[in-house]
Amino acid sequence: MINVTKSYLPDLEDYVTLLKGVWERVHLTNDGPLLRDLEGQLKEFLGVKHLKFCTNGTIVLQMALKVLDIKKEVITTPFSYVATTNALLWEGCTPIFADIRPDDFNIDPDKIESLITENTEAIMATHVYGNACQIEQIQAIAQKHNLKVIYDAAHTFGATYKGNSILSYGDISTCSFHATKVFHTVEGGCIVTNDDALAEKLHHYRSFGHKNDTYFGLGINAKNSEFHAAMGLCVLPKVPDLIAARKQRFNYYDSRLDFTRITRPTLTPGVIYNYAYYPVVFDSEETLLRVMETLVAQNIVPRRYFYPSLNTLPFALVTGAEQPCPISEDVALRVLCLPMYPDLAEEDIDRIAALVNEAVVAISEDV
Known about the structure:
Blueprint: H1 12-25, H2 33-46, E1 50-54, H3 59-67, E2 73-76, H4 82-90, E3 94-97, E4 120-126, H5 135-145, E5 148-152, E6 160-161, E7 164-165, E8 172-176, E9 189-193, H6 196-205, E10 210-211, E11 214-215, H7 226-235, H8 239-256, E12 271-272, E13 278-281, H9 285-296, H10 326-334, E14 335-338, H11 346-366
Parallel strand pairs: 2-3, 2-4, 4-5, 5-8
Antiparallel strand pairs: 1-9, 6-7, 6-12, 8-9, 10-11, 13-14
GO molecular function: pyridoxal phosphate binding; transaminase activity
InterPro entries: DegT/StrS_aminotransferase (IPR000653), PyrdxlP-dep_Trfase (IPR015424), PyrdxlP-dep_Trfase_major (IPR015421)
Organism: Spirosoma telluris
């Protein structure tokens, strides 16, 4: 079985060595020494001012909305994992969907300004597949209309824009450290800000809003454990090598696929990519489904990532009216992520690419 992704596991002895310290200290969670060490190393690796390691990549989106006091309308992307929209709905916000750019599939800044109303409080954008949004244009719109900017940067670990970590942009950025990501802690995530006051609030938010018997305000349980931090400490030093291995496989796909019949999203100028995903776009959903059927028959499991377009989900239409996003709706029907992970064998890429090419040709001949 070749899955769309495969989790990287570090040397078991390195992990067990860190766990022995956990057993000696009997400090399993609650801001333990391994967690603090990991936060420090992550800040240094990413070059960011404040970073809080939390339980997952969804709760940090909720924390971002809460700490920025966002309660009303938020302009967001319809082309993302459902957690982006779920976080808005869970926090009682109203998602207002702006369509995406046809080349990189990120939110289109040119579609944002016309959607701003007196109730608009923020823009929540996703750096799709780890590729940066139009950051300067989004920031200019936000400043003009006094809006906050939250980036769902779940895919961006290790990717940079104009020499800085993509996580360093916006009022707040969040990242997922799920087991399938470029960097992972089995389960986990982080929230990043350059604002000292927000960072202090987030520190308390993560732990029920109090420390010992001193209460600072509202909080939630977003703490992560020493066991997850230990995994992160083992994986982090390997990230440059993991990204390099992903790049090799990405380029090998490029050399084997027939791009006369398929396309890929373009990379934003100024981005140094982390090769988190390998998305391809077909000419129709019919072609995509034929390719999927061909691959699955050979125990190869791709992923319709992202499908469906989030503006079409019935529970997301809290305004009571449809919010058409024709580009996102079209792309969501035609995009497929092929298997991508650091130790994916070249012979497997050869086989996947050959199956994709053959299926696309076959369906074009059927038409």
